[in-house]
Amino acid sequence: EVVLGNRPSKTSTIRRLDEVGSISRRVLGLLREDVRHGRLLLHYQPKHDCRDRLLGFEALVRWPQAPHPSVSPAMAVILAEEGRLINELGLWVFRQALAFKAHLNQSGFAGLSLAINVSPLQLAHGDFAERIARLMAETPVQPAEIEIEITESQVMPDDPVIDSNIQALGRMGFKLAMDDFGMGHTSLLHLRRFAIDVIKIDGSLTRDVLHSATNGDIIRAIAALGQARDIAIVAEFVETAAQKQALANLGCHVFQGYYYSPPLAEADCLAYCRRQPDEAEVGAA
Ligand code: C2E
Ligand code: MG
Ligand code: MG
Ligand code: MG
């Protein structure tokens, strides 16, 4: 009956999921049905540069028919991982996100990038890169327009399959981002293991940057590392102008969070793009 394994990370999420009560097989069964019937949704959160120019979006999965409002997207993803559903869910996300990006391109916003989250468990699947290559063969979107965000806070098993999938995705031309950087126990080792283009600093570090000198020091160190290795630094959970300015001063290049916008439904994204102050500069950086 137990679907949720004993994870060293995201334990608070799992504990909350336990409190929901009627968890595990029933909820997983509902999720499986909804993935199969395409009843999930993607929302898209904007990313901006330090001059506030729109650079692109991150695709974030939503489960509108979740049986309980407290089953968050993060919990749905953990459930899918534990229930051997993550590959199917992940491919659905990828296909939807590519269709959205093709639509952006056709609408005059080809310069914007799109980030897609991929969990280490998907990368541990032998034919992951091959299946992505097959999806890319069916879309006008180029790999260089897509950033793959690999969650860093999860346990990243020491599995050669993961390494070869990541290398294959890099060779195809995808940009690779290490997500939730700073949350894992082995963040720095991952930098040595994978050729990474982007580091996304975890919200737990950026959130209280105005009040925590320690967090500021850590972010400055990560940014210095990024500069030395030609890695772009993204700050997530940017909620105020003052926070954005502090993070820019510490060396972050890209900013994402409620200060700009919450994740948007697909229908609202084009309006957001058109609303940008200088359309000629959209995606220029
Ligand atoms: P993440 O990739 O680190 O995404 C950032 C999360 O922070 C999102 O939560 C986003 O809505 C939230 N967020 C963004 N800006 C702010 C802010 O200013 N303040 C606060 N408090 N929160 C902000 P969300 O959408 O609930 O997603 C949670 C996590 O679920 C994601 O974290 C990601 O790890 C995972 N996830 C979401 N979609 C997918 C997916 O398609 N595939 C996989 N494998 N994982 C996904
Ligand atoms: Mg992400
Ligand atoms: Mg993140
Ligand atoms: Mg995060």
UniProtKB/TrEMBL annotation:
It comes from the Bacteria. Residues 24-277 form the EAL domain. It is found in: Cell membrane. This is Diguanylate phosphodiesterase. It comes from Azospira oryzae. The lineage of its organism: Bacteria, Pseudomonadati, Pseudomonadota, Betaproteobacteria, Rhodocyclales. The chain holds residues 411 to 695 of 695 of the full protein.
